[in-house]
Amino acid sequence: MSEPLITQTQDDQGVVTLMMQDRKGNNALGVDFVEALFEELRILSNNREAKVCIVRGFEDVFCSGGDESMLLELADGNVAPSDIMLSRSMLEVPIPTIAVMEGHAVGGGLVLGLCCDIVLMARESRYGCSFMNMGFTPGMGTTRLLQYAVGEFIAAEMMYGGQFFKGSHLEKTAQVNYILPRQKIMKKATQIALRIAEKPRFALELLKSDLSIPKRRSFEESRVHEAAMHQICFSEPETIELIKENYAPALSRR
Q1: Strand 126-128 and strand 164-166: pairing?
Q2: Which residues pair with 119 in a beta bridge?
Q3: Is 193 exposed, middle or buried (0-12, 13-18, 19+ CB in 10 A)?
């Protein structure tokens, strides 16, 4: 029996750890992986005993973004870009979420982490958006959410050029909570989670609902124009060839 793609565990304090663990696929956002993640986020959102959630991948790979088959399905028009609503699902989790991005995070995988309320990155790992390397504009709310994390100008460089940066490069400019040596990230995240878990659930829900308003509004705004740009990009015949040509190199550049 194969290992589940996503698992979640909960301790006595109400700290949930949602673990992405598709080693074979480098936690890429393929059809099965996305469906499993949607289901786990649904379960989490309905869990009244949970107070805070740590979202984690592997130590070397957090999430490698859309897999090649998913991207080709998008380009062929078999999957509508608006159907990929992982960002919204993460943003709408009713309790605080902590992204433990110890490993590399690419494209939609990076944005998935940035949808969390608290974000930790590793100095050694690389973070970037490879959408334009494959001939199409960013999706999943990247055009707005990335600006929250790294600022308008660094975000522009990452999006226009498909640029990848080590966490150490972003350390002085990024607006995330911590950029630490990889081996220290989980310990720090656990400390943060336990402090949050001391608070009453009803108050955490109320505060999460209020503090997440700007991000949720930005996402809804961005997904409309991102979907329109995707429709144009995916109507260009060369997009499929660029995906086939650059998907593997984009991963290896991490």
Answers
A1: antiparallel
A2: 99
A3: buried
- Residue 215 scores a pLDDT above 80: yes
Please choose, from the candidates 6, 61, 69, the residue with its C-alpha nearest in 3D space to the C-alpha of residue 37.
6
CATH of domain 6-181: 3.90.226.10
Q: Which H helix or E strand runs over 179?
A: strand 178-180
Confidence of residue 81 (pLDDT cuts 50, 70, 90): low
198-99-253 Cα angle (round to 5): 165
Mean pLDDT of 114-135: 95
Q: Is 4 helix (H, G, I), strand (E, B) or coil?
A: coil
Share of the chain above pLDDT 70, in %: 94
Q: Look at the alpha carbons of 238, 243, 244, 246 in this order and tell me if their dihedral is positive or negative.
A: positive
Residue the block writes with tokens 């260009």: 236
Backbone φ and ψ of 184, nearest 5°: -100, -5
Q: Check: CB of residue 117 under 8 Å from CB of residue 212.
A: yes
Distance, CA of 50 to CA of 73 (rounded, Å): 36
Dihedral over Cα of 158, 41, 234, 216: its sign: negative
Nearest-angstrom CA–CA distance, 238 and 235: 9
Which pTM was predicted?
0.92
Q: Are 226 and 138 in contact (CB under 8 A)?
A: yes
Residue by residue, DSSP assigns 49-116 as T--EEEEE--SSEEE--B-HHHHHHHHHTSS-GGG--HHHHHHT-SS-EEEEE-SEEETHHHHHHHTS
> Measured between alpha carbons, how far is 86 from 205 in angstroms, rounded to an integer?
20
pLDDT in tens, 226-241: 989 988 998 888 888 8
Q: Where are the domains of the chain?
A: 6-181
